[in-house]
C-alpha cells in the first residue's frame, strides 16, 4: 500500500515544475520573439505572398475637442483598435499553463501602415507602447489619438448648423493584393459605443457615427474605411451673445421714431446704433470662414438689419432737411411781412402827422390873430414851436406802433410753432415720417419672419441629410 504522503509529494513536485515553466518569457522564448530578432517585423507576416492580410479596424469617439470654422479644422479624440493575424505565431496554451495571450512591444512585430487622409498634423497623444498577441497569432493594437483633421464646414445655417466630418482610413503603400481592410463594427454599434465612452462634448453635441467600407475592385487600388461623425452645435450662447443684441439694437432704432426731428439728437442716436451693428459684424467676420460658397443666414440677418437701419437714418436726414427748408421759407415770409407792414404803417403815420401839423399850425395862426397881435409875429414864432412839438409827437407814435407790431409778430410766430403747422414742407415731412414708420414696421416683421422660416427649414433639411 502506497502512503498518502508519497502522492502528496508527487503533487507538490509537479506543481513546482509547472510553475517553473508558466511564464510569459517562456512563451517569448518558444516563439523566439526578442528585440534583436527582426524576423517578425521586417515583412508582412504571411506564408504565401498571394494571401492578403485581413486587417480589421474599429474607431470609437471619446470627445469632440474643437471645431474651427475659420480654418476648416476638426479635432476629435478617438480610440482606434487595429487587428490582424500573424501566420508565423502560434502556441498551445496547455503547454504554458493556459497562457493564451501576451503583451509585447509594438516594434517587435510588423504592423499595417494605416493612415488618415484628412489628418493635417501629427498625433499629439503618445502611441501605445505595447500590443496584444494571442495563441492563434491574432494581433491587436489599441491607441488613443488626438486628430487634427480637415473638414469642409457648411456654415449656411450658423449657429444652428449640423456638421459632418469624415475620417478616412487606408494603407499608405499596400494595395488590396497585400491588405484587405474592413470595419469590425457597423454604424449603430459604433454610435452606441461612442455615446457610452464619451465624457465631454464642449460646444458640439454628438448625433451619430456612420461607418462606410469601400472595397476596391482593382488589385492596384486600396480598401478604404470611412467614419463620418455627425454633430450639432450648441446655439444658446450665440443666440444670447449675438442674435438677441442685434435684435435689441433694431428695437432701439424703432423706438427712435418717438424722438423729435427738430433737434439733432435723433440723428446722432441712429448713427450710434448703426455703429454698434457694424462692430457685431466685425466679430462675425472673425468666426465664419471666407471660403464658404453660400452667404450664411446669420450674415444675411445682420446685413438685412443694417440695411433697414441705414434706410431709417436716410429717412431721418430727409425729414430734417424738409423741416429746415420749411423753417427758412417761413422766416423769409415773416420778415417780408414785418418789413412791408412796418413801412406801410410808417407811411400812414407820416401822412397823418403832416396833416395834423398843417391843421394845427393854421388853427394856431387864427387863434393868435384873434388875440390882437401883429400878423408878422403870428406867422413866425408860434409856428416853429408847434411844428417842432408835432415832429417829436410823431416820432414817439411811430416807435410805439413799431413795438406793438413786433409784439403781434412774435405772438404769431409762437402760435405757429406751437401748432406745428407753419408751412407746406412741414406737412410733407410729417406725412413722409408717418408713412415710412408703417412701412418700416412691415419690412422688419416680414424680414424676421422670413429669417425664422429659412433657418428652421434649413435646419430640418440638414438633419434629414445627416440621418441618411
Automatic annotation (TrEMBL):
Q: Which GO terms describe its molecular function?
A: extracellular ligand-gated monoatomic ion channel activity; transmembrane signaling receptor activity
Does the keyword Membrane feature in the UniProt annotation?
yes
Q: Neurotransmitter-gated ion-channel transmembrane domain: from which residue to which, for each copy?
A: 243-452
A Pfam family matched in the record: Neur_chan_LBD
Q: Which residues form the Neurotransmitter-gated ion-channel ligand-binding domain?
A: 41-234
Membrane topology reported for the UniProt record: Multi-pass membrane protein
Cellular component, GO, one term:
postsynaptic membrane
Q: What is its main location?
A: membrane
Q: What does this protein do?
A: Forms serotonin (5-hydroxytryptamine/5-HT3)-activated cation-selective channel complexes, which when activated cause fast, depolarizing responses in neurons.
Report the protein name in the record.
5-hydroxytryptamine receptor 3A-like
Q: Which keywords label this protein?
A: Cell membrane, Disulfide bond, Glycoprotein, Ion channel, Ion transport, Ligand-gated ion channel, Membrane, Postsynaptic cell membrane, Receptor, Signal, Synapse, Transmembrane, Transmembrane helix, Transport
Q: Which reaction does it catalyse?
A: Ca(2+)(in) = Ca(2+)(out); K(+)(in) = K(+)(out); Na(+)(in) = Na(+)(out)
Amino acid at each position: 500500500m502506497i502512503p498518502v504522503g508519497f502522492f502528496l509529494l508527487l503533487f507538490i513536485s509537479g506543481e513546482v515544475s509547472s510553475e517553473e515553466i508558466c511564464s510569459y518569457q517562456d512563451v517569448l522564448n518558444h516563439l523566439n520573439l526578442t528585440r534583436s530578432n527582426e524576423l517578425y517585423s521586417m515583412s508582412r507576416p504571411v506564408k504565401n505572398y498571394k494571401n492578403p492580410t485581413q486587417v480589421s479596424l474599429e474607431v470609437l469617439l471619446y470627445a469632440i475637442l474643437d471645431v474651427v470654422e475659420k480654418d476648416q479644422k476638426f479635432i476629435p479624440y478617438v480610440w482606434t483598435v487595429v487587428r490582424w493575424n500573424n501566420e508565423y505565431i502560434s502556441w498551445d496554451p496547455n503547454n504554458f499553463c493556459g497562457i493564451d495571450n501576451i503583451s509585447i512591444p509594438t516594434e517587435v512585430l510588423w504592423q499595417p501602415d494605416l493612415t488618415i487622409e484628412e489628418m493635417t498634423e501629427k498625433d499629439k497623444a503618445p502611441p501605445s507602447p505595447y500590443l496584444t498577441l494571442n495563441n492563434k497569432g491574432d494581433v491587436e493594437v489599441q491607441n488613443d489619438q488626438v486628430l487634427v483633421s480637415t473638414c469642409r464646414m457648411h456654415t449656411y445655417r450658423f449657429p444652428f448648423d449640423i456638421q459632418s466630418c469624415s475620417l478616412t482610413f487606408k494603407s499608405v503603400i499596400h494595395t488590396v493584393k497585400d491588405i484587405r481592410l474592413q470595419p469590425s463594427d457597423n454604424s449603430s454599434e459604433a454610435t452606441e459605443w461612442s455615446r457610452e465612452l464619451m465624457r465631454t462634448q464642449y460646444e458640439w453635441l454628438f448625433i451619430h457615427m456612420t461607418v462606410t467600407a469601400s472595397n476596391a475592385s482593382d488589385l492596384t487600388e486600396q480598401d478604404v474605411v470611412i467614419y463620418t461623425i455627425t454633430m450639432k452645435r450648441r446655439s444658446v450662447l450665440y443666440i444670447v451673445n449675438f442674435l438677441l443684441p442685434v435684435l435689441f439694437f433694431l428695437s432701439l432704432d424703432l423706438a427712435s421714431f418717438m424722438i423729435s426731428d427738430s433737434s439733432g439728437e435723433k440723428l446722432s442716436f441712429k448713427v450710434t446704433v448703426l455703429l454698434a451693428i457694424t462692430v457685431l459684424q466685425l466679430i462675425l467676420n472673425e468666426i465664419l470662414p471666407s471660403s464658404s460658397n453660400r452667404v450664411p443666414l446669420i450674415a444675411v440677418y445682420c446685413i438685412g438689419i443694417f440695411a433697414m437701419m441705414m434706410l431709417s437714418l436716410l429717412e431721418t436726414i430727409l425729414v430734417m432737411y424738409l423741416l429746415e427748408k420749411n423753417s427758412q421759407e417761413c422766416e423769409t415770409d415773416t420778415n417780408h411781412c414785418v418789413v412791408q407792414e412796418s413801412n406801410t404803417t410808417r407811411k400812414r403815420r407820416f401822412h397823418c402827422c403832416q396833416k395834423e401839423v398843417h391843421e394845427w399850425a393854421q388853427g394856431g395862426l387864427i387863434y393868435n390873430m384873434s388875440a390882437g397881435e401883429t400878423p408878422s409875429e403870428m406867422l413866425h414864432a408860434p409856428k416853429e414851436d408847434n411844428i417842432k412839438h408835432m415832429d417829436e409827437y410823431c416820432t414817439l407814435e411811430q416807435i410805439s406802433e413799431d413795438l406793438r407790431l413786433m409784439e403781434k409778430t412774435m405772438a404769431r410766430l409762437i402760435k405757429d410753432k406751437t401748432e406745428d403747422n407753419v408751412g407746406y414742407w412741414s406737412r410733407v415731412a410729417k406725412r413722409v415720417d408717418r408713412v415710412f414708420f408703417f412701412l418700416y414696421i412691415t419690412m422688419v416683421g416680414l424680414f424676421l419672419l422670413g429669417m425664422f422660416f429659412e433657418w428652421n427649414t434649413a435646419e430640418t433639411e440638414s438633419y434629414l441629410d445627416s440621418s441618411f
